Predict the structure.
Amino acid sequence: MSSLWRCTICGYIHTGSEPTAICPICAAGSEYFEKIGEASIGAEGLQEVLLKVPCGLFVVSSIYEARPNGMINNTVFQITDAPLQIILGMDKRHLTTEYIKQSGIFAVNFLQLSQLQLVKQFGFKSGREIDKFAGIEWNLGFTGAPILKEAVGYFECRVKSNMDVGSHLVFLAEVEKGVLPKDVTVLTYQEYREHKHDLWEQTSQLTHEPKGIGACKSQID
């Protein structure tokens, strides 16, 4: 039976008895693939269906001990409107997840299609190795979370609870402040997927470590 293998660098899903030798998206070797299950009839098709579900692509940022960090994420969804609450899915392995757990605050920074270079800044390397905010202008928001000055809008959120769902934590948070001009179209995950191959090709140095943009797609610290 074929198995499902996920590239821990870019999130590409491969089906086969063994992982592919070279990831066709980011060129990571087979050692950077993890087995995520057995492929059943239609499994690949179901994955493609999920990838077509519309969702945004954001920079989720937090701060701990005066050090800001952020990462690309696409699992942010409104869950109630009174009070205004969202849920955020975060891979447990990520530095940003640790910051959110420790500080209890985070910001969701909105991007536009023209800002794909920020996806490279916050999504292709880990904050454990580089200062992702180096050269980036930002402010402390109302909650104390870091807000990107380049962001076209943002939500500031305070964590109310979290749920362990295995490889990820799901945070329930109340939105305490938000700004988004009415004429702005927010970058979507689907738009990112249309351009991600070019973005990876533009990146000459990749950090090939198990990291995980999305609960089942890929996120980088």
Q: What stands out?
A: The longest strand covers residues 153-164. The chain has two domains: 3-51, 58-192+197-201.
